[in-house]
């Protein structure tokens, strides 16, 4: 029960944070802008975009205060903590981060820094390096201040960098703006698209995700070439992923997928993978697994701004292990040539799947334990790892038991690398949840498979169903009759009283009758 | 009519002829009915003590609807005079005579009431067994309160007879009747519903979808301790449950539900053990004692023995080794009894579906329904015409 509660709370918090982040993004946007005209334009445009969400001229001071408090509370509650109970010493940070480029590199480094104590310092240093390559001053400031005690050398804000970046930003902004204006005056569609796109990149780099999205969408509308549209969509998706705005991701994804029906397979692959990530964030594990597995095709593809090819192997393999049954596993993974290529890139995952399929449970459990740190430090998987691990383990136990009539639980415990007591608890839970058909002989520690007597069961079910049906039908008939006779539970009206004499007479008769009976 | 009276005089003397008299009177019912105005006269002629059967018929003829008022008064008088059992038989007979098949009459609730007061349930069970669902309020003068009371009292009787499944069904009916306000009877039904459903299935089902909103909303308001009880029961914590009952002792006591509450607590233990049978083939008595906080092995043995005797669990206890081994339900459904039962139930279902067909036919001919249907058809026809016009334009 607590797991379900957690899921619900997590979902709520995600939505709240998304809302808050949007508002924060807006605040940042309105704070950073130095151009007066632009500000007014932006504000009016924001009004149009938001519709009824905020008040007319942006949120009032009081509202801002309230929102700030809420955000702080939520952030305090949702503060990323170190993951305990996992050994991260085997995790190679540089190896991992090698494949990622751009903003996702930065994001992932921050994620790891917040969750692995061992790697925190190194990850933060690398993060600072990365953030300096962008124009995102806000983020730089925030992280340096927050982790100042951990960062020893870089403790002080690099003011020089900040100033340089500000100046640079202002200049770039000016030139981009004038380019766009010119293109608009000359009604140069190509120029308009390019100008909007560049501005979108500019804001993305600054960390103003909301504005970036706006410009990307304008760029997309300014062209009809499918390839260019897809480019704009991908840029928008990248932005939306960073801002965790899932509705945007799905709408741009849909738009892009419509266009790629005609296009090459590699873009399709990229889009499918992104779709997989989207499904993963909404806990649709099986759909996500399908997306990852069917993404690979004849051509290779890559999009290191969001994922690496290793990710496809890992996500696809892990999620299918957790959600597919044996037949699906065979069809989708073992017989799937294209996906296997990606799986080979991650031999640990490949081994786990093969061990599971070949019922080599010791190897299977060892492999799972080995890969756990890597999964826990992955930005998209981390929150789901524990839950999925439990699921995978359950599946393994069920598979272990399925060919046998009786199983010695001591051997079972050894094969799964746990103690007898623990395995007994796991098995009894599975039986209680109807996932395992068996009974435990506690004295001899044996698990017996039950031959469910289908015949008796059917009889029982049929008789119960018949009784239920008869009851319900009669109840409905009664109800229909009540309604037909216009009888409902209402306020009582005055009852019609009978005449006094008649009553007395009747009473007399009754009493006499009684005496007669007795 | 004179003839009838004479025969009554003649035959009311000995028991054998009473049977004949009864049949004779039944045949002559029509004649008796026609003489409505003069019945009083005739009644005076008969001496009530001797000619009770005749009187009954005449009185029945006197006013069919009034007859039910009679029942009510009868019940009330008997209860006042502390002889509730005296009313049982007459009420039963009046139901038998005046009832159409499967019909609910005003006599029903009073029969139940009287049976409860006199703690004599043999007659009542016969009536309860027959499932009622027909109602003709014009002819019988039935009102909704009597309907509610019938199911409430009926539920109580089933609960006393430990048929919790049926009791739950009755209470559930009460709760789901069409309603504009919450009636006290429904409230009490709900409280008992919680307990009896726990006793029969171990959990409280969701209220059926036909329950009116008014009822649902208000139930929560007035049944606080009961809902807490339900919650704690679902958490299977017998200590907390005990504390709760002690805390709300007066609330439960005022509603006369203390007994049910205590039974439920006992039930918790039973359900726990029944769950065990699903997971284990053999179990040590120590394990059971520990898991359910029964104190000693002897207590555990005692409880399980009790359950085995009542047929609530199928097991054998090995006293020397301190173990229990569970078997499956030995019922194989291969006896002829099962065949007969299935036949009977199939027949009931066929009858029911006939009933539904009749109801359907009745509705189809009902003037209001025909009018509504015609209006609907007209509207939809118009709409489709408009759509066609638009398409053409």
UniProtKB/TrEMBL annotation, chain A:
Q: Where is this region: Disordered?
A: 1-78
Q: What is this protein called?
A: Cop9 signalosome complex subunit 1
| Key words of the record | Coiled coil, Cytoplasm, Nucleus, Signalosome, TPR repeat
Q: Which SMART domains match?
A: PINT
- Give start-end ranges for the coiled-coil region(s): 166-193
- InterPro entries to which the protein is assigned, alphabetical: CSN1_C, PCI_dom, Rpn7/CSN1, Rpn7_N, TPR_rpt, WH_DNA-bd_sf
Q: What is its main location?
A: cytoplasm
The organism's superkingdom is given as: Eukaryota
Q: Where are the TPR repeats?
A: 193-226
Q: Could you tell me where this protein is found in the cell?
A: Cytoplasm; Nucleus
Domain PCI: where?
266-454
Say which family it is in: Belongs to the CSN1 family.
UniProtKB/TrEMBL annotation, chain B:
Q: Which GO terms describe its cellular component?
A: COP9 signalosome; cytoplasm
| Domain of life of the organism encoding this protein | Eukaryota
* InterPro entries assigned: COP9_N (IPR055089), CSN3 (IPR050756), PCI_dom (IPR000717), WH_DNA-bd_sf (IPR036390)
Keywords from the UniProt entry: Cytoplasm, Nucleus, Signalosome
Domain PCI, residue spans: 166-331
Q: Which GO terms describe its biological process?
A: ubiquitin-dependent protein catabolic process
Q: Where in the cell is it found?
A: Cytoplasm; Nucleus
* Family indicated by similarity: Belongs to the CSN3 family.
Q: What is this protein called?
A: COP9 signalosome complex subunit 3
Q: Which organism is it from?
A: Anaeramoeba flamelloides
